[in-house]
């Protein structure tokens, strides 16, 4: 309905694909419920955003990213995708502090009723206060990773162990979650401004009006309750945002320009058995050394399952040889494997009935997209809160099998994960009794996810609570 057309919400996602995409999906949820929505971003992020918006009635307001003179970054570096090296990343994060003034100009022009900004813009709370509007945090996570992050930060269990590999239990959290120091987000912090920014980012959940979680109640009731009642945060769950209403064309358009035509993908999947194909993708930022790619290729082949494998490496040009592939791999595989070099229409692929398993780095978006598609998953966390999400899939909802990565070190120059480990994990999620049980649980969760966003569902209703809260504030 259009009962909320008097409300205007401004969205300000962090400049990274894994933050921008769910934020647009979230804006779409608001627009579908009759609210006016505007996305604020910088010029070079507009193509990705307008593609993802498709035909939806979401406005874009652009602000200027500071110049190379101001940032010390190369020209054109406006998305964290182009700032992956640690020194660049620090400069990139510090540059975002300069977006405050331009954002406030937009607030002055647009007079929104609320601003939904990423946790990485902690200063947005002050900007909002200046204009007397509430600031809400959205950075695309669910309650489980939010709870673990908050408990680790509050109780510092990592300070009580003697080595990086000694396990500790996350205190005051249901489920006896064990972690090691090697599984905590590792970000270089030797820069004062940068570490202060991180510190304030972590606080922004507490200091803002509330938090929107990309989740649904039935997925993680213990943690939804814990976050609100024990940690005392105001929060709404409006997800999974990837299930927001949009037509099939818009589904294929979500994110960057794809390296493969959506129809071509569907055609390839057409003659495959239901639940037989493995989809392998490690999010928007991960690249692997050749030695690791080779092991993945061999593991996929040994599993005997057909696969779609997304590789973020090399160019898109057709004559670019896949030199890191094992010898004769392509001839042996023939139609059994599809390698996509670049950006894949992930949600469209996952939703196809032929897909039966997902090898994922456990970014929260991918995790939730796998849940929505009802898929058992092989978990291969890389960094950040992905180790928490992997635990969630294997230990809490029990639809994941670890490939055996226990530390982020392994992903940056340690020994590659071997073919045998990959093959073993794949077999566990694809064939046999354990696989069937996981698939059954995953499909049930997928159905619950769809019910949650339908009229009367838990996320649908929580949207109403949020609107009610916002209205009571403006009175
Ligand atoms: N994605 C995609 N195609 C790709 C890679 C990623 O559509 O080839 C999408 C994926 O569906 C998800 C997002 O990009 O919505 C990645 O977010 P996630 O939190 O999983 O990982 P991140 O990229 O932030 O590490």
From TrEMBL:
The keyword Transferase applies. Keywords: Glycosyltransferase, Transferase. The keyword Zinc does not apply. It is an enzyme of class 2 (transferase). Pfam families: UDPGT. Its EC number is 2.4.1.-. It comes from the Eukaryota. Belongs to the UDP-glycosyltransferase family. GO terms for molecular function: UDP-glucosyltransferase activity. This is Glycosyltransferase.
